[in-house]
Specification:
The complex is a heterodimer of chains A (116) and B (114). Chain A has 116 residues and is mostly beta strands. Chain A is built from no helices and eleven strands. Chain A has strands at residues 5-7, 10-13, 19-24, 31-38, 42-50, 53-57, 64-68, 74-78, 87-94, 106-107, 111-115. In chain A, the strands form two sheets. In chain A, strands 2, 4, 5, 6, 9, 10 and 11 form a seven-stranded mixed sheet that branches. In chain A, strands 1-3-8-7 form a four-stranded antiparallel sheet, with no helix packed on it. In chain A, strand 5 (42-50) and strand 6 (53-57) form a beta hairpin. The termini of chain A are far apart. The relative contact order of chain A is 0.33. With 114 residues, chain B is mainly beta. Chain B is 0% helix and 46% strand. Chain B contains no helices and nine strands. Chain B has a five-stranded mixed sheet, with no helix packed on it. A four-stranded antiparallel sheet of chain B has the order 2-7-6-5, with no helix packed on it. In chain B, a hairpin with a 6-residue loop joins strand 3 (31-38) and strand 4. Classes of the chains: A mainly beta (116), B mainly beta (114). Chain A binds chain B through residues 2, 4, 31, 33, 35, 42-45, 48, 55-56, 58, 88, 90, 92, 94, 97-101, 103-110, 112, and chain B through 34, 36, 38, 41-46, 49, 87, 92-96, 98-106.
Amino acid sequence: DSGVTQTPKHLITATGQRVTLRCSPRSGDLSVYWYQQSLDQGLQFLIQYYNGEERAKGNILERFSAQQFPDLHSELNLSSLELGDSALYFCASSVAGTGGLRETQYFGPGTRLLVL
Amino acid sequence: DAKTTQPPSMDCAEGRAANLPCNHSTISGNEYVYWYRQIHSQGPQYIIHGLKNNETNEMASLIITEDRKSSTLILPHATLRDTAVYYCIVRVGDSGGSNYKLTFGKGTLLTVNP
């Protein structure tokens, strides 16, 4: 158990809908990262938040957005869903998000999203 | 971040040591080598990381060559539960506003056989 929690575990929805994935980082971790894992693209970085502020962006679609709240949990919002958005979505957390040996990322169990 | 090259698959007998190689010939001086593994659709699990010295923890050992262009992850006594995809990742470790994302390749599927 990494200490990172994600809800829900599974999500089934229809095209065009909007969903919210939730992540709670390990106690004491200030930085949250979101990754998407699909069959054809592998594990890809989406976005990073550090202490409530966006820190870095990866290959995140404009239909996707995220935020980190004062209690440090994070939500990933996916809208206008398409079939191709079906994937595993992982959240990871690290202590600081500022580099160095404290930057080991610990991953949650993921949310499996199926868009029908 | 430097790219890495790993064999797509490897087999290992239960109880034997599993040695997983990784090439990272373009690694920079401030980049660390990280190893993660993913057991069938679970979240990636951190194993170990290092800069230039060999490292050991309760899970594995990491051997980095002197020129840092390659490394080997060693699982000393592989069990069936070690069957997973193992990812070797090279990532900058210094501060300075950099993006600390992890760039995952395809990894090595290690199958531990009874």
